[in-house]
Design goal:
This protein has 2 domains: 141 residues, 3 Solenoid (UDP N-Acetylglucosamine Acyltransferase, domain 1), CATH 2.160.10; 36 residues, no CATH class. The protein is 17% helix and 22% strand. The chain has 4 helices and 15 strands. Strands 1, 3, 5, 7, 8, 10, 11 and 13 form an 8-stranded parallel sheet that branches. Strand 14 and strand 15 form a beta hairpin.
């Protein structure tokens, strides 16, 4: 059996702080108007403009659009995120799936080769779920939401707090519960179609600034 190094011996507040400082410096130097919260960890993340994260956020293999942000303690994995998205605290995206059909056991040591297991029975992964999550533009995901692997969430959707999303979410709908179900649409169907075709999030900052007052009333915006 191959001996695995217990890396927890190497962790301490000073080394963790130094790693965070290095991450913050590298990313904020690369991207304009980016702010990285305290002790946030980033691996293979691509930002847009005017993004920020809260404290203790973990992101891996993520692409996000302009103005989108994450509140404290979010864990965001394997995701493409549009512009103007709002994430409440403690949101989990693509937390990982275990097999529920065919495989005899759900334990990862018996279908894959993860580094965190003390002993594995295979030298490769036999479980290959589609993990990537796609989140549209102007999406609001409230506190403590879990979004399962492979989910697609449409533009303008809202996910209620404490929900578990296990199926795709249509644009401009509000869903909630465990599992998340449709609560209602945000606007009339013709208004939704107008917004999806208009794609205001792709307009210039000057245009948005000039027309900001119209965002306060969907009826005025459509007119």
């Amino acid at each position: 059996m191959k001996l695995k190094i217990d890396r927890s011996y190497l962790q301490n507040p000073i080394s963790d702080y130094i790693k965070w400082l290095k991450t913050k410096y590298i990313y904020q130097k690369k991207y304009n108007y980016l702010r990285i919260g305290y002790m946030t960890r980033l691996h293979n993340v691509e930002f847009g403009k005017y993004n920020w994260t809260g404290n203790r956020v973990f992101m891996e293999n993520v692409v996000m659009g302009d103005f989108s942000y994450f509140s404290d303690d979010c864990v965001i994995l394997e995701a493409s995120i549009g512009k103007f998205c709002s994430f409440g605290p403690n949101v989990r995206v693509a937390p990982g799936k275990h097999p529920t059909r065919t495989f005899v056991s759900t334990h990862p040591a018996l279908f894959s080769n993860p580094i965190y297991c003390q002993k594995n029975f295979f030298d490769k992964d036999y479980h290959h779920p589609h993990r990537h999550v796609t989140i549209g533009n102007d999406v609001w995901i409230c506190a403590n939401v879990v979004i399962s692997d492979g989910i697609s969430i449409g533009d303008g959707a809202i996910i209620a707090a404490n929900s578990v999303v296990t199926s795709d979410v249509a644009p401009y709908t509000i869903v909630g519960g465990v599992p998340a179900k449709l609560i209602r649409s945000r606007f009339e169907q013709d208004e939704i179609e107008y917004l999806l075709n208009f794609k205001w999030w792709n307009k210039s900052l000057d245009w948005i600034q000039m027309n900001a007052s119209m965002f306060l009333d969907i009826k005025k915006f459509v007119k």
